[in-house]
Amino acid sequence: MSKMITLALSKGRIFDETLPMLAKAGITVSEDPETSRKLILPTSSPNLRVIIVRASDVPTYVQYGAADLGVAGYDVLAEHGMDGLYAPIDLGIAKCRMSVAVREGFDYANAVRQGARLRVVTKYVEQAREHFANKGVHVDLIKLYGSMELGPLVGLADAIVDLVSTGNTLKANQLKEVEVISQISSRLVVNQAAYKRRRADLQPLLDAFSKV
Ligand code: ATP
Ligand code: PRP
Ligand code: MG
C-alpha cells in the first residue's frame, strides 16, 4: 500500500473548481470546507487527503513538503517564486487577468507621458514592480492584503494592480482598467522532491489532472 498523499487547496473557487477534476478520477472529498471547521479533509481514496489553506499559502505548504501537491493561481505563484516547486499542469481554472486600474476620471496615459510618479496599491508587489519597471514608469508601491479597489477612492493611491474577471468590481467602484499585465489561471504544483521520489504514488493523480 502506498503512503498518504496530501493535496493543498484553498476554500472558494479553487476548491470548487478542483472538485470536478477529482470526481473524474473517482475521488470525492467527504466534507465541505465552507461548513466544516476541519482543515484536514479525508477523501474517498484512503491514500489521499486534502488540506485547506489560504490561497497565497498553497506554494509554501508544497515547497516545504507539508503538502505533496496543491492548486494555486499563477498570480500567487509568480509572487511566491518557484523554489522547490514543479508546475507541470495548467488546469485552466479560476481564469482572470492581472490589470492596472485607475479612477474613471484619471488620465493614466497622460500621467505616464508626463513621467509622473504614481502611487500604486496592490497585493502583488513583485509583479507590479516588474510591470512598471519594464514600462519605465516610476511608482511607489503600497502593499495591501485586499479591497485594493478602495485605494484610489480614498486618496491612498492613483492606481491599483489587481485581478479582474467580469470587471464588475471595478465598475461598482468607478474604476477603469487601463492595462492588462498578464492572463491568470491556476496550476497544479508539486513538491520537487516528492515528484522525484514518489512519482509512482503521484502519477495516477497527475494523470487525472492532466486529462482536464
Ligand atoms: P488569500 O486568501 O490568499 O487572500 P483569496 O481569498 O483572494 O486569497 P481566492 O479569491 O479564492 O483567494 O482566489 C484564488 C485564486 O483564484 C487567485 O489566486 C486567482 O488566481 C483566482 N481568482 C481570483 N479572483 C478571481 C476572479 N474574480 N475570477 C476568477 N479567478 C479569480
Ligand atoms: C477578486 C479580485 C477582484 C474581483 C474581480 O476578488 O480581487 O476584487 O475578484 O472580479 P470581477 O472582475 O469579476 O469583479 P474576490 O472575489 O476573490 O474577493 P476577495 O476580496 O475575497 O479575494
Ligand atoms: Mg480573492
TrEMBL record:
Keyword Glycosyltransferase part of the UniProt annotation: yes
Domain of life: Bacteria
EC number(s) stated in the UniProt entry for this protein: 2.4.2.17
Domain ATP phosphoribosyltransferase catalytic: 54-209
UniProt GO MF annotations: ATP binding; ATP phosphoribosyltransferase activity
Pathway: Amino-acid biosynthesis; L-histidine biosynthesis; L-histidine from 5-phospho-alpha-D-ribose 1-diphosphate: step 1/9
Domain comment (free text): Lacks the C-terminal regulatory region which is replaced by HisZ.
Subunit architecture: Heteromultimer composed of HisG and HisZ subunits.
Name the UniProt record assigns to this protein: ATP phosphoribosyltransferase
Name of encoding gene: hisG
